[in-house]
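Field log, afternoon session.

UNIT: design team B
ACTIVITY: writing a sequence onto a fixed backbone
BACKBONE:
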């Protein structure tokens, strides 16, 4: 009888262990992700999220298969007391414990922001951030239109704030605040504008914004460093003579038509401070994000007597320079004929 009782107890214990193991498997180790054939999916937890919001985000994205086991385990592991907003990557095959630990320990995915010269306008910049971060278009637009804040924080205004944005790559949290983001942008700006560059800028008699603006125009004319230095010299000569810059890249910016290869007389009629055919001097701010080569080309511009230049008819990125208007007209005629021959009308 005693032997039978011992056997029953052993069996019951084994059954209990079996149930405990099965319970642990179901709640902790069994994969509980349903990504419908995908390898991973991102879930975004907003900055004001509570536990209910977190669950709603997971469930609305359809990534959690068994809600009951997930919620039960999440509360036992105190996830409801450790909510960290951000972007999280849910991989196929993950179990409750892995998901909860990732969320609880704030193992979020960073968002990669790549700022390059393809960003030309403030609106394009804001739209890019709006698509990448929790920050909304309206919030960013309001911030970058606030004269008081921009002057206090960056010494800039809504018309030239894009001078602050230099090509760079940042890795930030999806829920990063605008002050944090622009703090990083400002730090990088200051790291680029070292004393040597600031001294050259001061020696040339231009402000940082003016140099950035001219560099953006030069960048729009050519991508070849030696040509950029010569072109910068032309524009500086024109500024010194109080001549209009008559820079075609500024017309493209004024018309918000960046794909055209050929500007027309109609383009020159637009009433915009960026129309350097109509208004003398530099426009209010840069017409694209300025790379280091273009910036240094302006700071180290070639000194010469040229006041005209025109792209070579070979369209190879180089230009023909002249100090004589009649010679310039001959170069311009050859260039126009080259465009005609290639069928380039716009």
């Amino acid at each position: 009888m005693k032997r039978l009782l011992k056997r029953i107890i052993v069996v019951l214990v084994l059954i209990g262990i079996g149930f405990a193991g099965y319970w642990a498997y179901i709640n902790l180790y069994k994969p509980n992700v349903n990504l419908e054939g995908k390898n991973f999916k991102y879930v975004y937890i907003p900055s004001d999220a509570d536990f209910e919001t977190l669950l709603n985000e997971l469930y609305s994205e359809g990534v959690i298969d068994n809600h009951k086991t997930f919620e039960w385990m999440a509360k036992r592991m105190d996830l409801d007391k450790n909510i960290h907003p951000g972007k999280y990557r849910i991989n196929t095959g993950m179990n409750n414990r892995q998901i909860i630990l990732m969320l609880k320990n704030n193992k979020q995915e960073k968002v990669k922001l790549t700022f390059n010269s393809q960003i030309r306008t403030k609106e394009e910049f804001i739209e890019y951030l709006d698509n990448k971060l929790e920050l909304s278009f309206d919030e960013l637009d309001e911030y970058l239109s606030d004269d008081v804040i921009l002057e206090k924080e960056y010494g800039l205004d809504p018309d030239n704030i894009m001078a602050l944005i230099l090509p760079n790559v940042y890795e930030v949290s999806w829920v990063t605040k605008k002050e944090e983001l622009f703090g990083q942008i400002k730090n990088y700006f200051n790291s680029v504008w070292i004393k040597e560059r600031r001294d050259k800028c001061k020696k040339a008699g231009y402000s940082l914004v003016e140099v950035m603006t001219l560099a953006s125009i030069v960048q729009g004319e050519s991508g070849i460093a030696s040509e950029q230095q010569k072109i910068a010299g032309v524009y500086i000569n024109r500024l010194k003579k109080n001549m209009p810059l008559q820079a075609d890249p500024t017309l493209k910016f004024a018309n918000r038509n960046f794909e055209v290869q050929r500007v027309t007389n109609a383009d020159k009629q637009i009433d915009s401070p960026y129309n350097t055919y109509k208004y003398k001097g530099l426009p209010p701010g840069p017409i694209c994000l300025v790379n280091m080569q273009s910036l240094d080309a302006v700071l180290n511009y070639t000194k010469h007597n040229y006041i005209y230049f025109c792209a070579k008819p070979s369209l190879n990125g180089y230009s023909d320079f002249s100090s004589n208007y009649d010679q310039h007209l001959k170069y311009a005629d050859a260039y126009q004929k080259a465009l005609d021959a290639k069928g380039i009308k716009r």
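LOG NOTE: The chain has three domains: 31-104, 111-189, 195-341.
NEXT ACTIVITY: expression trials, pending approval
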